[in-house]
Design a protein that fits this description.
183 residues; 10 strands; lipopolysaccharide transport protein A fold; ten-stranded antiparallel sheet
Length: 183
């Protein structure tokens, strides 16, 4: 067997690992421990204090600073008076984290997006796609651990998404332009 063919799985794992690190290093979430408010607007809302839930439906927009989540339905969960989970459902639901001095803009979508603060996890489920700095990451389910900054992904078990595989498009590194202005 040709040594290049034997090492192909190792090379693919290294490329995949590099792509995951690029996405993980830049992905961010709502900061539920922040003093900054989370603002929600929707066509309808139902607050159930006994269950600790707030259900918003119809063109829902959730914002904290520049971070934005849009969906058809959003459920906020509180435990002991503290917001600890956000679930968004759409066709698809969208998540946008703006560009900062250190990170590129992140634009993600999936049919379901779940942010679980206690688990330090954002999960994108069903037709999940993340765009960042020209890189694209697709899978049936993408999990981002906000504490360890690790991304894991899986394809569809039934083969309905890219023949059951995860797909990545990784752009080459670009040199910083010296002609940029601060406008």
């Amino acid at each position: 067997m040709n040594c290049h063919l034997r090492n192909k799985p190792r090379l693919l794992r290294r490329i995949a690992g590099a792509a995951l690190l690029v996405l993980a290093a830049n992905a961010q979430a709502f900061d539920l421990n922040s003093d900054r408010p989370i603002k929600v607007s929707a066509d309808q809302a139902r607050l159930d204090d006994a269950k600790g839930t707030a259900i918003y439906t119809g063109d829902v927009v959730v914002r904290q600073d520049g971070t934005e989540l849009t969906a058809d339905k959003v459920v906020l969960y509180r435990e002991n008076g503290v917001l600890n989970r956000i679930e968004a459902y759409g066709k698809p639901a969208h998540y946008v984290q703006p560009q900062t001095a250190d990170t590129a803009k992140t634009d993600a979508e999936a049919m379901t997006i779940i942010y679980a603060a206690g688990d330090n996890r954002i999960t994108f489920i069903d037709k999940a796609v993340i765009h960042q700095a020209g890189n694209i990451f697709k899978g049936e389910e993408i999990n981002y651990d906000t504490a360890t900054r690790v991304v894991t992904a899986s394809g569809s078990r039934d083969g309905s998404n890219q023949d059951g595989r995860v797909e990545m498009v990784i752009q080459p590194r670009q040199k910083a332009s010296s002609g940029e202005t601060g406008d």
